[in-house]
Amino acid sequence: MAAITSFFSLVIAILGLSSLCLIEAQKGGFSVEIIHRDSPKSPLYNPSETTYTRVTNALRRSFNRVRRFEPTSVSTEEAESDVIVDSGDYLMNISIGTPSFDIVAIADTGSDLIWTQCKPCSECFKQDAPLFDPSQSSTYKTLPCSASQCQNLYGSSCSSNKTCQYSVLYGDYSFSDGDLAADTLTLPSTTGRPIAIPNTVIGCGHDNGGNFDEKTSGIVGLGGGDVSLISQLGSSIAGKFSYCLLPISETGKSSKMNFGTNAIVSGNGTVTTPLTKQSPDTFYYLTLEAISVGSNRINFTGSSFGTDEGNIIIDSGTTLTLLPDDFYSKLESAVSSQINATRVNGPEGLSLCYDAQNDFAVPDITIHFANADVELQPLNTFFLVEETVTCFTFAAIEDFAIYGNLAQMNFLVGYDTEKQTVSFKPTDCSKN
Q: Which in 92, 251, 331, 402 has the greatest CB count within 10 A?
């Protein structure tokens, strides 16, 4: 039975080694370690939490996160790394500045800007670690209002001294305001020395608040917009990154996020589907054609993102796979008709749950993306929410469609932003 796979986070362990410049890293790609939020290796691990508490918290975070994808609340704006989850997202340990200053930040495929809390801070959320002090970095510089990165960033403004100011508001009402700047960003690499990326555009936040954990300091945006980490790495990683998310049962092991040549997904079992460009360009849009339960194919009629191309977002920070009410109702009916087990009540938001005291057969479920059929395993479709209850990892939501991280467990998922594709390869992520 699949264990709870809802709380990943990208945590990057900064190594005490000299940095390798990005030019050198390009030759072989690089990778960062990935750690599950509820693994004992995670800084967010809480041994006093029960399975039910963790699931309930994950569901709350997952449904709250949906607001980030609402059109009205979103602006139109080679390596491996450790991944851990916070608030339904991932965490990354990165370093900023010269000398390097270690930071734990949420790694988010649903946003673009890289930012951290900075001194002086007029209003900051509580964090355990010291604040980044830009005056102590010899490579830090604020960007002028005339800089293209300032002019192209939604929500930017000009201060009285002609430096660029940014303002980011997320769908869950978290926010950050401060100076748009450039500094050296350093990523740890599990395949060599840390990777130093000079002149990375970052936000230095002096007024920040919202749903942030005290063990985090900011956000690393991994979306498709111009100022995201992926876009800034650009041609140096050939637009490629991938990840392999472990089931929670593999608590003693780590996964990786890969960049550049390390991120190529190929070989037996690999299927590839197109990415579709839409506004905002932050999100990664795929085209869902249907879902099959056994031989019963249920055609997808679309969501608020569209009826044809680009009708679903793939997101590593959302726990469940969320589907419009009408379509979900048909899917749940098809799944329940093929399961011979006792239905029971589960946490709020999960409507298809069973008594897990006795094993039962789970039907084969296939996700039909354009040109790519992704065959899910039982660990992708049902997860244990408490000792005796297991629930379906799909849920209904009004008009949205998001392909969440439970469905991505034990798949090597590769993004190629130059070719505009996403590839899936069934993989034992504990051996990846």
A: 92
Q: For residue 288, what are the β-bridge partners?
A: 369
- Give the helix/strand (H/E) hosting 81: strand 80-81
Residue 320 tokens read as 């469940």
Q: Block means of pLDDT (10 residues each) for the chain, length 432 residues?
A: 36 36 59 70 76 71 63 41 49 90 84 94 91 98 96 92 93 87 92 87 96 85 92 92 81 76 95 93 94 97 80 88 95 97 92 94 97 97 90 91 93 96 95 76
What span, in angstroms and rounded, lies between the C-alpha atoms of 315 and 19?
31
Among 183, 213, 315, 416, the one annotated catalytic: 315
Query: Residue 148, SS3?
Result: helix
Chain-centre distance for alpha carbon 92: 11
Q: Which residues contact 349 (CB under 8 A, 6 or more apart)?
A: 59, 62, 63, 320, 395
DSSP letters spanning 14-63: --SS--EEHHHHTTT-EEEEEEETTSTTSTT--TT--HHHHHHHHHHHHH
State how far the Cα of 393 lies from the Cα of 411, in Å rounded to an integer.
16
Amino acid identity for residue 357 in this structure: Q
pLDDT at 279: 84
Residue 38 known to be catalytic: no
Residues 240 and 265: beta-carbon distance below 8 Å: no
**Measured distance CA(120)–CA(206) in Å, rounded:** 6
Let me know: does 401 contact 288? Beta carbons within 8 Å. yes
315 assigned to active site: yes
For the whole model, what pTM was predicted? 0.86
